[in-house]
Amino acid sequence: MLTAVKVEKRQIRHLRVRQRVRGTAARPRLSVFRSLKHIYAQLVDDETGRTLVAVGSRSPEFRAKLPNGGNVAAAKLVGELVAQKAKVQGIERVVFDRGGYQFHGRVKALADAARAGGLIF
Q1: 23-69: per-residue pLDDT in tens?
Q2: One-letter-per-residue 3-state SS of 55-119
Q3: Which of 12, 55, 113, 116 has the most crowded Cβ, counting Cβ within 10 A?
């Protein structure tokens, strides 16, 4: 399957999920994006259109602990970091948005690490 077709199908799945999953200030949306080399997570308040917390495998706090970001270990670290930053801002409950990706591998590792860090979803 061509890469463009795969990306387009993921975007369609993501839009279908986004019709039902909405983040609020009290319960923001934990949005996941993964590329071949990196993984990113952010907490979004969809009512105001603001990103409350953002962590990625390219951020300085991540780079201090791991050199590369395209594996399961990196996804776990990003999940832990996003949970820590959310706790600092007083956020405990979130809605998980897998971004059209399969809940498997790096996406699952990020979600499990965020749950272990104290986020409830």
Answers
A1: 999 999 999 999 999 999 999 999 999 999 999 999 999 999 999 99
A2: EECCCHHHHCCCCCCCCHHHHHHHHHHHHHHHHHCCCCECEEECCCCCCCCHHHHHHHHHHHCCC
A3: 55
68 to 16, 32, 49, 112: CA distances (angstroms): 31, 17, 30, 20
Contact assessment for residue 36 and residue 70, using Cβ atoms and an 8 Å cutoff: yes
Return the DSSP state at 120: B
Q: Which residues are paired to 33 by β-bridges?
A: 40
Q: Are 106 and 77 in contact (CB under 8 A)?
A: no
The pTM is what?
Answer: 0.91
CA distance 41 to 95: 12
Other C-beta atoms within 10 Å of 31: how many? 23
